[in-house]
Amino acid sequence: MSTADATVPTADRRSRWQQPTTWIAVAIALAVLIGLYQLGTREITFGTDVAPDAALKWDWAFVLSLVPDMLNGLSVTAFATVYGFIVAVVLGFFLALGRRSSVRWISWPVTAFIEFVRSTPLLIQLYFLFYGLSSATSFRLSSNQALIVGLGIHYATYCSEAYRAGINSVPRGQWEAATAMNLSPGTTWLRVIIPQAIPNALPALGNYLVAGFKDAPLGFAINVTGLMFFATTIRAREFRPIEPFLMIGVGFLLVSLPAAWLIRRLERRISYDRI
Amino acid sequence: MTASDSANGTEIDGAAAVTLRHVTKAFGDNLVLDELDMDVDPGERVVIIGPSGSGKTTILRVIMTLERIDSGSITIGDQPLYHMPDGTTPANEKRIREVRSHIGMVFQHFNLFPHMSALENITLAPMKVHGVGRDEAEDRGMALLRQVGLAQHANHTPGELSGGQKQRVAIARSLATRPAVMLFDEVTSALDPELVGEVLTVLKDIAEEGQTTMMLVTHEMGFAKEVANRVVMFDHGKILESGTPRKIMEDPDHDRTRAFLKAVLAH
């Protein structure tokens, strides 16, 4: 027996937090979040000195002069989307747990809240957060904050359903094995159920991130100076809708496509063999 | 490293390892355990047989607390499982966890955690439930993997293992907490025929040590004859008859038993 032991692989005893790649990934994520915050919370106005071709022909010089402003608008929209989605994935998880709770006075209100928010339009929720809240209480949200909170709560209800489906897709046998091993409820959730439920939920969560990004222009209605605000400002001033609206279409593509690609990579990376 | 330190048993006191008294369990209108009385002695190896739907798997599941009983009592050693030590007050979750730590179970479909390596599957409970340090848990886990002949697969996930290998890892996992009572629920039924032998060999090793109380639901009659002290024939939620493997297999008292064994041995 002991001679064979030499060929036996030893377990990697370093935990995930002791590996440099984890820290590099965390550092990049933090840098992106801080950068987005810095860019997205600036005071932004849109204007260009280039007068467009009066003959209403496609004017490349005009387009080029609009690029910096478009990127400014994009930074605001991306900032609100990313921070709103962080609210959504965190809050959504707790909503999913609340809805699953065996205590009725937790699960019923949570279920009612989820159904209410899911069945009412985001636009109305944004109006309520921005105008309604400040008129009824002394609590006032800025345009950006209202959009982040609105997107966050709205998509949290969708994310909670994705989590719920992910949790339900973990086979019964996994719960039973956890019971047979006498694991505590906390260990069962953290080590057994969540690591299997999250990969199951990830494709749906990724779809909601992209969907939330596409819903972020609704912030225009509460004066968020994002992509939509940029395009309508230019259109109103120069009477030229074609260039700015095509540009923000491209702007959305520039973010959505890489995001979808990143999500697919993440799915592959944290997937496991389902047995 | 020998097998001996793997299952020297959590200490349980009492004359019997498992005692069931008037245990009744129904799923809707379907009565699966009917006022069942049963005793299993410490170190005894009981094979439970019976037609499907006779309640044999449910016995293991109520002992493991995967199903709650409708009435009656179950005692592990001298500790009531569903009741506080006074024997009448219903047990709380803390109490059930305490008594449950003496029991281990191996499932028909393995139920390994697919996102963990074989070794992580084995070390999880000792580390999280019994507070064993990582290094010691891994040393013990590797010893268990050697015992079931899978040390070279320690870092493989269940998806990379064959059915027989998965079941051997699952057995090692349930041995890792050194339970006094081990429950085996048709552990070879989901395996391809050529993989059954390797799992039965592991079970025979545990049986030969003689310290672990084993309750096995199985249709492997040859295996039952070799390892069991007693074979219990179940029918309609009750014990139809019980005796040594030789007695049950060669000279059963009941025609139902005779017919059942004939059907099982026919294939």
Helix and strand succession of chain A?
A: HHHHHHHHH
Proportion in β-strands of chain B = 15-25%
What is the helix/strand order of chain B?
EEEHEEHEHHHEHEHEEHH
Q: Based on DSSP secondary structure assignment, what is the total number of beta strands of chain A?
A: 0
Rg calculated over all Cα atoms of chain B: 18 Å
Averaging pLDDT over every residue of chain A, what do you get? 87
Model regions low in confidence, pLDDT < 50 over at least 5 residues of chain A: 1-8
Q: What's the rounded overall pLDDT mean of chain B?
A: 89
Radius of gyration of chain A, whole Å = 24 Å
End-to-end Cα distance of chain A: 31 Å
Describe the biggest sheet of chain A? none
DSSP summary: helix tally of chain B: 9
The SS-based structural class of chain B is alpha/beta
- Per the principal axes of the C-alpha atoms, what is the gross shape of chain A? globular
**Apparent shape of chain B:** globular
| Helix/strand structural class of chain A | mainly alpha
Distance between the termini of chain B: 39 Å
Q: Oligomeric status of the shown chains? A: heterodimer
Strand order of the largest sheet of chain B: 6-7-8-3-9-10
